[in-house]
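HUMAN: Please help interpret these tokens:
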Amino acid sequence: MSLKDSLQKDMIAAMKAKDKATLSTVRMLKAAVANEEINLGHNLSADEEISVLSHELKQRKDSLQEFEEAGRDEAVEKLKNEIKIVQKYMPAQLSAEEVKEVVQTTIEEIGATSKADFGKVMGAVMPKLKGKADGKLVNSTVKELLH
């Protein structure tokens, strides 16, 4: 089942259950996918769908941090709920150890030896981990291994 089909099915279920929070989030995700399809001029591939979901998740996480710093508890709870809903559509996330293994393998493949190779390593490792690991975790792991 494609992401669009899954979103449509979940949107209908949320309407029937009168779950306004889920309905709102699913509608936003559905709109983001539709907008990306219009921008690209074709149906999205699985990688492109993950890219859209990753972008939506990152936006919410960034907003969550800002709202927590501002002490806006009501908005924080709403965003935490939205993050859970978006994560439901994401591929399973890799553990820190699994990310470390992928980064280590990539460093060996590229032959990176110092922090000067950081950009090369990130460029090679991010496509492998797209949607499967948080970018901040990947970034810190690369920095740690390139000491």
